[in-house]
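This section describes the prediction task in plain terms. A model, or a person checking by hand, is given the sequence of a single protein chain and must write out its three-dimensional structure as a string of tokens. No templates, partner chains or ligands are provided. The sample shown here is typical of the held-out split.
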Amino acid sequence: GRTIREYEIRFQTSLGFERILRETLVKSRWSGILETKRHDGKIFHYAFRTYGVTDQRGHIIGLVGIATDISRERLSTEQLRRAETQQRQWFEIAFDGIFIMRNRRFVYVNPRLCELSGYTYEQMTDPEFDPALVLSNSFEPAAFGDGEPEPGRQRTLSLQILNQDGTGIDAEISAVSIEDENGNALFGIVRDVSEERRNKKALKGKEHFFRCLFDHMGIGMAVYGIAFGLLARQAGLSASENLLMNVVVFAGAAQVATLDQWTYPLPVVSIVVTTLLINLRLLLLGAAARPWLGG
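The expected answer:
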């Protein structure tokens, strides 16, 4: 963004030129990365190489400089570095454990995995540290493609994360073989599923309890139905009246109390009052169950 004369004056009066000149005089050449500001204020970087121009006696009488604009490369490198930094920050705050394994050794573990295992980052990334101390012997990196020429095999398995204090945590590992500038590696995510499994186990236990309860309830209802049918027959109810009684009257206790008063003519008022008093207990049951019913 400057004229040749402006650039010549600016370059020759700078301290950088003096340093480049001295090193070129000693080594006959110099190379490095320089930063300059354009006439419009923009900054760009360039790779600069100088060579000494000698006379017939070998004395340096001048310099030849070659400048290569590397602004785009520097920008790409900076963007990549920022992306890697941001990605690492995501790994650091992840709720799941994350690890990168190479040659069957951890090269990176995030804080969550350290928390699950009880080991420090330095301990787990030590070349002498055996991942089997954490992932148990059932974890086989080869099953995910570790060390294979074509990465990308993904797999999920369940195992226990072994804590340093000897306890185990139920976990689920999803891992995939990846390839970076250092070769093949194994990228894995460890999810703690111990609470989820406890909830499933508790739910299964409750399901078994209610299933057994309903199975026995069916037997009890059958016995009650037979007993009520015999009592209704003794009270003189016909089959249609017995069926109507079971459809209209909800509570079994109210049905039995009604049979005790079943005479002709029917004491309708007494039967209604008795049934009402017996069913008032449902108000107390409803009030007690209200917090669990969301009312």
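For orientation: The two ends are 76 Å apart (CA to CA).
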